[in-house]
Batch of 2 targets.
Target 1
Amino acid sequence: MKIAIVCYPTFGGSGVVATELGIALAKRGHEVHFVTYKQPVRLGLLGNNIHFHEVHVPEYPLFKYQPYELALSSKLVDTIKMNGIELLHVHYAIPHAYAGYMAKKMLEEEGIYVPMITTLHGTDITLVGKHPFYRPAVTFSINQSDVVTSVSENLKQRTKEIFNITKEIEVIPNFIDKEKYDHSFTDCQRSNMAKEEERIVTHISNFRKVKRIPDVLQVFYRIQKEVPAKLVMVGEGPEKEAAELLCETLNISDKVLFLGNSNEIDKILCFSDLFLLPSESESFGLAALEAMINRVAVISSNTGGIPEVNIHGTTGYLSDVGDVDAMAKNAIKILSNDAVLSQFKENAAREAKKFDILRVLPLYEAIYHKAYAGRFKTV
Ligand code: GMT
């Protein structure tokens, strides 16, 4: 099929999922067209089956806010017409589903019917909880999508609680490409990060409030008092500076490395023993899944969709949001015994394989075909 994918091109989870999905679809022979304002960070070389169309929003002095939705919907109309696109898949409701709907309607005026799949990722839903004035537009664009998917069962329930949704929501979980991790790095360059006897604890995120970065540091503070350890913090975001200050206050700066954004997540996870994800809310927790496939145990909060990924007592442990004592206690239990640690690592990799893209991709393909077959039924 010829598929247009709309996503955020940044390091955020939804952009990563959309990009990896597009790459996998292209490998399966589909023609994939990414439509967004910058080439997605995980998208490598473009080729016969993978194309990128940049949405450009010209600066115009009259506008206080440049109209991205308008530029996106116009770009979609052009891209769909010029490339014979058969299906539109938008990741993240705000404003992608809204712009997608406008494009769809403009095309219908010309007798072109392109079904739209909207995938909800979580922050598009919670954002409306915080800013209810978005509700009418988001409810409308979700209900007007031909198919709506959510990345976890929990997100599906939350969406139904927050919005008046008339559309069925299909759960298609996030995924990882197991094959990418089948190679075992012979040298993770672990010695660059920590001493032989030290455990390596890792956190990867966009350092927003929702990630509860101070909890990451408080858990690590307790860990390093009991077990020799280093903490590797990967990512950039508004909480980073305060985190660096808190490290000084806790007197752990020499044990914490801030690496910034990275395209080499798998290399970092390769030398990690434990992943910390104490988030306030998390629709899925893709970062935890990426850790697990790299044989890293997970200590997380029990919020949102995380329990669908991190299995308590098997791949790691879950605790209430903010319960840093319980998180630290469980982390120490895993880290202080070699046999226990390797059992958790093995379990993590095994459970992660259940989310292999080869299992998940056919679920998307099935809804694509269903939506395409019913494309003349306008919603
Ligand atoms: O919070 C993030 O890490 C970014 C955010 C996004 O919208 O890109 O991630 C959301 O989507 C990811 C992919 O589906 C999920 O794995 C994350 O759990 C979700 N984040 C939240 O719900 C806070």
Note: Residues 12-14, 17, 121-123, 151, 174, 205-206, 210, 281-286 surround GMT (CB under 6 Å).
Target 2
Amino acid sequence: MPEHHTPLIATIAAGLALAYAFGLLAHRLRIQPLAGYVLAGVVVSPSTPGFSTDSALAGELAEIGVILLMFGVGLHFSLRDLMAVARMVVPGALVQIVVATLMGAGLGHLLGWSWTAGLVFGLALSVASTVVMVRAFQERHMLDTERGRFAVGWLVVEDLVTILTLVMLPTIAMMATDGAVPPGRLAFQLLVTLVKVGIFVTGMLLVGRRVIPWLMHYTAHTGSRELFRLAVYALAIGVAFGAAKLFDVSFALGAFFAGVVMGESTLSQQATEEALPLRDAFAVLFFVSVGMLLNPEVIVDAPLALAATVVIIVGVKAAVSWAIVRTFKLGDPAALAVAAGRAQIGEFSFVLIGLGLELGMVPPLARDLVLGGAIISIVLNPLVFALLVKRMQPESAPFASGEQVIAAPTPAQQPRHDVLIGYGRVGSLVGAALRRSGAELVVIETNEDGLEKARRDGAEVFVGNAADPEILAQANLAAARRLFVTIPEAFEAGQVVEQARAINPLLEILARAHSDAAVEHLERLGANLVVLGEREIAERMLERADTAPA
Ligand code: AMP
């Protein structure tokens, strides 16, 4: 048999298979699967014995994850959103970067490094990972809320700062070694980069905004789903790559803007969202690739420095971000969410410190500290979120000026109330009718429009992902009469039904489904009635069409 040299396939196969195995194991042990993915990376990393894969390839695969993820975020982001938060996120992100950088530089100084080395190290600690933050927000259905948009805006600013730093770092390195470089050169480089980014952004907004949605509609009209999906991937990855090669924009930012312009029409937004199933698999590879970078020696060689690094990343950054958001007079929920989102570092930091090392600006220990700090902070991040976001729930009330909701401080206490999950197309019809019939109604919803509508209909409202036990607990299911699960996603609906059945064996549970498998799944978990949307549609059509045999 000929010898095959297929490092790409080996990396994908080992990465996905081990991530799956360790993710499953983590789930069994009731830890976040994310920790399992990182551990999978440690196992296949070249620095641990046994089987190893190519970490450069894994890094590139992870980039595809970043591209698809940011593209998806962009889809839900309009330019208006971006403008609305810009006033606050620009100064906010900048102040946070400065404070974290100075802290990092201070630590570097204590370790006996030069100030330049300390500043590069500090900068690497100051920027958070897109993937980690976006996934954490997505999981909690917070990306589409105002605090989600705020956090994403902050991310965009950080990304821009990173781009500028990366461009200027080589010149700064030259200036540090021999002072002969004229300072005007730095200003010139800054200007050139800003102009390039500006050209890219305006180009996307003026040309891309017309061409891309048109292309999507044109493709949709061919009636070929395959071509449509291809269009999505080609545009997302193509624009990101082009942005990076031609305009010095990062992949993440390029993909984000491609998403923003493609999301201009809600139709293409939805269709495109459906065409992105590969995104999650690649995002998992991101965590594997992070694990692969671990150099375990740093834990033994410099435990104190590593601990201090983690304190800066998790403690200082979170506290500073929290304080900044508070000064904008946004509520605690927003401040805590942003703080939790910032309490980690990832891909940008690797790039920054990698370049610093290449230019001889930082010692190898700085890189090891950044990598170790990243892995620890990423694995800790779900805990940080759980800690801070828990505090956020009881106060799910006003974000800025009445953005959010109204939630009673105590769990719903009406005797024999009805609970409704989701207040969209299905839930709002059910809810309005229930209210008309005089029922006491408790609604759990993630999305602001739905929440607002439910409140107007006179329901008691709780914000959050209903599949989360802590959110669901607020509906006081033990005392409820009926539960209506009107969310379309079968896994989440299943989690709600399962918990509800465990809490209250007598509760009448009615659920929505979109496939025979989902019907079976929900019935098995304890739903009394599962309505298959598609079947109801068929029946209504047949009701109208006369199908009696002639
Ligand atoms: P529709 O498909 O139009 O009936 O909308 C479904 C509604 O359910 C949307 O408004 C979503 O925001 C909401 N929703 C989806 N998943 C969840 C969840 N896990 N928890 C709470 N609300 C949800």
Note: The pocket of adenosine monophosphate is lined by residues 141, 421-427, 444-447, 450, 465-467, 486-489, 492 (CB under 6 Å).
